Amino acid sequence: MSAEGREAATCDVAEAEAREELERLLSDTRFHATERSRCILRYIAERHFDGHEDGVKAYSIAIDVLGRPSSFDPSTDPIVRIEASRLRSSLSQYYEAFGEQLGVAIHLPKGRYVAVFNRSAILRPACADQGEEVSGEDDTVQRLAVPPGSWRSSQDRRKLAATGILAAVVAISATLLWLYKRPQFTERPIVVLSISAADAALQGEADLTGDYLLTALSQFRTLTISSQRDIRTGSLSSSLRPSTVKSYDIDLKYYGDTDDRSIWWQVVDARSGDVLKSGVERVKMDGKSAGAVRDELVGVLARRFATPRGIINNLEIHDDNEVGAFGNTCILRAEYQLDEGSIDDVAAMLGCLEQTVAAQPGNSDAAATLSRALLASLGGVKPADVLQRSLTLANRAVSLAPTSDRANIALMQAQFYNGRTEAAISAGNRALALNPNNPDVSARLAAVLFASGFWDAGTALADDAAKSVDAIPRDASLVLALDAYRRGDWSEASLLAEQINCGDFLVRALRAAALGQLGSSQAIERLDQLRQLEPGFETAFVADMTARRFEPKLTASIEQGLVKAGARMDAPDSPNLQPF
To answer: Any transmembrane segments, and where (predicted)?
Structure first.
């Protein structure tokens, strides 16, 4: 339900109810807001209770809540607008997901810093029965309150009947629209694999490669592998494909000569018969054993077909017919944002993940992805209750699916941010053993190892994750850029950081720091971009990097580069860190 829809169906909320909802919301672990956002919400709400119904000024919030000096100028420092936008987004996502269960909702209108307490639309009939006024934001929708026996003519009765009919039509239309537009739960797509050999003498090799590929694809948990068929016998019967689940055929043809082995492939929409993508993978023999060649081919094909950014899942992510869908599509889109999106992009996925977990408590993939999204949506410093819930969700995911690489990676990250580095690395290695062909697993384990000071091991895994994939995982790119920076190769660090298709805090900090070390005139531009994202980073950099569990020497080295770029670092309580 949108904020506008809630406002159109409200009735007066007593102050006691409003205060109760405020306290309940701030104590609810499902409300994903930073500590700063929570303080702003409480401040605005208290001013509302004190009678300031027109709201408060940005200047007051900056001085009283954010600790800005009296010289603060909202026209040059956007921190209040940024924080208000994040708070507004957190409120909207929370009530979108859980509003129907609640009696009162809190809304922060755009353009004003004022708390509006609305009664949920589900309680609107009760409000009408109590004879209360129901109004929207512009006060144009009002209750008809006419005492019995006051109608004076049949014309009045006809008007009342017409009003009732119109209201009924509107209600029916709204219900039909909701039924039409309500999000659907989606499942993993079905994949049918077939393989044949161009030369009958190679059919045995082809079948064995197909068996290994089938096993590799099943390790990803992103596809439902239906069966293996021979391409000569035709596709799996359409009667065996569930009508509500997408299905694809992967057709492969095996070729070989004395120098190499190659596989031609195509991905086909099983319902329309359209060829969606095709290609050829080739591996040189170069003295390799048959098993080594087979493993290399299988690894390349598995990455191409089954990774969250692979061919099939990329189609699922960008399917316009499944906008707002829950289940598998929500999980894939959240993983996409975790790899390429901003903090706000990740936070926007929390609503559908929460509803997927609530509706499908046995869905380990949803629990694992929500665990990771909770951590990523809050940047560096994370509240203790969020850290605990993330760990609880990750443990639940592993309990539901012990052999899931997704679940074990979620556990790795939750343990890492909870300060359990050794346990985190153990969980990451377990995930890698469960699915050695998943570059995302290698990249995320590489990030944990590198941040913990295991430079060589982290860099080696990042290198491996960057091979034979259409899109290099962000964590792999970031580790390689950080390693170049650590080694003092500022040009390489700058180039790699600029190539990362993401503008989060750490990436922007690395871009500015590398250019600062180079003495480039472009450093100030990158520094300004970092300030726009995190206006207060110069006073909280060390605390933020510490919360991200980065090795102190690396933190000190990046801080040194930021100072050279023009940053005015101010961390009087931080330890005296020395760079490399």
So the answer is: 160-180
